[in-house]
């Protein structure tokens, strides 16, 4: 897999003050953390801090406000949660730490990490998100909690009802700040912060940090220290991003060819609208692909179920709106396909960043139809990495890649695998539109031999057309 060019520029400073307080040790025992925190970290085999943790822990533990930038999966949650928990008084049954996130899934993910550290210190945590009844959330708040993690809409609703008080808040975190401070969430975030006291400490984290985010954040932070570690949004990830001009071809036909060649690991297919994602997932499901969809109109229980199946590998293709692009840490995503372009280069960067995690190689493929050229030129101009351009050769199903628009082929590459390039000697006959290769498999339900439109995985059940239903797919 080709390496993408890495040319991200960070707004980062390293002051003498930071150098003076930054420890050079490589374990958490070098920091001013209590013994119970250290024991909790060691119990879950976390010993050495990541780069973002090394940079931000001394600052946050010393009481400084921080603006931190690092890609998802870099350890941002512990970077802000460890110093936050140090400020909590377990004997005070009031909210003292609040983490705001743009999505329910990210709130649950942060809460899962926190629950591995906080209980040993006698600290209770509550997750406040929409999509589910607020009665259990209110009951937990009445019992008394110290750490609140949630999304702005539901938190503001409970504040307006008088069911939540933030006058004892000591530590505020805005995670995925570029989304929280944008026009969609920004007004609600501003209203929530007005309920807090001015003496709080504030940390702001994001994988992308446009200048307008820092300008917006200046209203909420006091003399913040800016930290940007070397593992930026897709800076050090082994990701190829290929933009494919499919000209007159139908995107669904090209998508199916890509999914047939997807190889190991999971795949995320990004669409633009909730309706479009639901429709695309249904079409792929009818075609026999192991697919689930996630979008904002689903109930929280349904979204949790989809993410659980995707993380476990029970379903290896996820069709999603941008709700899955923000902050979710799923290590084994090997392929991202953008069927529809997002609204901004920041969102595209977040989508691409779902692959290439934990030092693994990844690929992102953006499909460009005849109506996408103008929007793509604008998005590409602001992307943090160079994109490989190419055209789809329908007869050979190849992506012909060119580097930076220069003449001459950079590489010829089968989408999603390492098969040799097709030449005049081994080129297959052109298939009629709609005709697709079939693979022989044994149905896991009835035992009959069946032809399926994808390469069967020997470790997963396969069903013939008569036996395949959404129910047995979910149980696979």
Question: How many runs of DSSP E, i.e. beta strands?
Answer: 18
CATH architecture of the largest domain: 3-Layer(aba) Sandwich
Structural class: alpha/beta
| CATH C-level category of the largest domain | Alpha Beta
The Rg value, from CA coordinates, equals: 24 Å
Distance between the termini: 30 Å
What's the CATH topology name of the largest domain?
A: Rossmann fold
**Range of helix content:** 25-40%
Give the domain tally: 3
C-alpha geometry: globular
Largest sheet: 9 strands, mixed
Low-confidence stretches: 1-24, 231-236, 402-436, 470-476
Task: Figure out the total of helices.
Answer: 16
Average the pLDDT over all residues and give the rounded result.
77
Our estimate of the beta-strand percent is 15-25%
Provide the CATH superfamily of the largest domain: P-loop containing nucleotide triphosphate hydrolases
Topology:
Layout: H1 16-21, H2 35-43, H3 51-61, E1 66-69, H4 76-86, E2 97-100, H5 104-114, E3 125-128, H6 135-143, E4 147-150, H7 152-161, E5 171-175, H8 177-180, H9 186-194, E6 201-206, H10 211-217, E7 225-228, E8 238-247, H11 251-260, E9 266-270, H12 274-286, E10 291-294, H13 300-312, E11 317-320, E12 333-338, H14 345-352, E13 361-369, H15 373-381, E14 388-393, E15 398-402, E16 411-413, E17 439-442, E18 449-452, H16 470-475
Parallel strand pairs: 1-6, 1-7, 2-4, 2-5, 3-4, 5-6, 8-13, 8-14, 9-11, 9-12, 10-11, 12-13
Antiparallel strand pairs: 14-15, 15-16, 17-18
């Amino acid at each position: 897999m080709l390496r993408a060019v890495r040319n991200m520029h960070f707004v980062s400073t390293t002051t003498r003050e930071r150098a003076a307080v930054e420890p050079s040790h490589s374990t958490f025992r070098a920091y001013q953390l209590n013994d119970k925190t250290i024991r909790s970290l060691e119990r879950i085999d976390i010993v050495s801090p990541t780069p973002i943790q090394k940079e931000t822990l001394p600052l946050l533990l010393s009481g400084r406000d921080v603006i931190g930038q690092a890609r998802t999966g870099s350890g941002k949650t512990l970077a802000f949660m460890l110093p936050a928990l140090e400020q909590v008084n377990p004997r005070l049954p009031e909210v003292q730490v609040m983490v705001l996130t743009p999505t329910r899934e990210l709130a649950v993910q942060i809460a899962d990490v926190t629950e591995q550290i906080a209980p040993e210190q006698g600290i209770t945590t509550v997750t406040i998100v929409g999509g589910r009844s607020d009665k259990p959330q209110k009951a937990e708040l009445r019992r008394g909690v110290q750490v609140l993690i949630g999304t702005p809409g539901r938190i503001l609703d409970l504040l307006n009802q008088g069911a939540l008080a933030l006058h004892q808040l000591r530590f505020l975190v805005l995670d995925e700040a570029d989304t929280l401070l944008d026009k969609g969430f920004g007004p609600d975030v501003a209203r929530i912060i007005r309920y807090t006291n001015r003496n709080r400490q504030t940390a702001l984290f994001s994988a992308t940090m446009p200048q307008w985010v820092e300008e917006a954040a200046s209203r909420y932070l006091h003399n913040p220290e800016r930290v940007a570690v070397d593992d930026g949004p897709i800076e050090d990830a082994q990701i190829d991003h290929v933009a494919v001009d499919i000209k007159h071809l139908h995107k669904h036909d090209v998508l199916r060819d890509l999914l047939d060649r997807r190889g190991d690991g999971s795949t995320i297919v990004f669409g633009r609208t909730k309706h479009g994602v639901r429709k695309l997932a249904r079409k792929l499901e009818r075609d026999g692909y192991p697919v689930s969809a996630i979008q904002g109109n689903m109930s929280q229980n349904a979204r949790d179920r989809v993410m659980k199946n995707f993380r476990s590998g029970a379903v290896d293709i996820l069709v999603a709106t941008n709700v899955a692009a923000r902050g979710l840490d799923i290590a084994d995503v090997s392929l991202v396909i953008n069927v529809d372009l997002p609204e901004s280069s920041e969102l595209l960067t977040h989508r691409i960043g779902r692959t290439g995690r934990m030092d693994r190689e990844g690929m992102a493929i953006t499909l460009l139809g005849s109506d996408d050229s103008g929007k793509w030129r604008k998005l590409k101009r602001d992307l943090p990495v160079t994109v490989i351009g190419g055209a789809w050769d329908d007869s050979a199903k190849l992506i012909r890649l060119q580097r930076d628009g220069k003449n001459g082929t950079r590489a010829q590459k089968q989408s999603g695998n390492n098969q040799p390039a097709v030449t005049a000697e081994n080129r297959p006959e052109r298939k009629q539109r709609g005709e697709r290769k079939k693979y022989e498999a044994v149905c896991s339900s009835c035992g009959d031999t069946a032809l399926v439109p994808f390469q069967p995985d020997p470790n997963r059940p396969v069903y013939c057309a008569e036996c395949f239903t959404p129910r047995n797919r979910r149980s696979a």
